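Session log. Operator J.P. requested a structure for one protein chain; no other inputs attached. Running the standard single-chain path with token output.
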Amino acid sequence: MSINPEQFAAANKAAVDSLLSVANTALASAERIATLNLDTARSVLEDSASSAKALMAAKDPQEALKIQASLAQPNVDKAVAYSKSVYEISTETQEQLAKMVEAQFGDFQKNVAAMLEKAAKSAPAGSDVAVAAVQSAIAAANSAFDNMRKTAKQVTDMAQSNVAAATSATTKAVKKSSK
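Structure written below.
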């Protein structure tokens, strides 16, 4: 069984297209993170200038303490929002890449199944045991991939729950301490 030039060219094109998709996804994610960081840096600079002006306008230390205390919660809220945004971008990127891997694995499975079927038809008599062993190995690989995918989903879900719980606890702690 040999691969003809058209199959080889199609396989190469698919590999290049796949790499370009991964690269574009990674670049889009990096661009979103960079934009978020620049927007955050701009906001921090503006807030710092505004806070400094407010503190300098305080007439006595008591008023300065009140101003400083009033700035704590918005700063924590902004830090939490920034962390959530980074997490969301990371999660979305991971999901996109996982979908690409799953699609490629699905294509790979189809190609292997087609090649195996072709090989089984042209196999010499008595090779049924070898074909069955290869089919069993492919079924085991498919099962392992499915288990890995399910485990990755569980880990992602657990991480999302942990981030939500940590965010909530941080916000509550800051609100309590500023009262």
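Operator note: The chain has one domain: 5-178.
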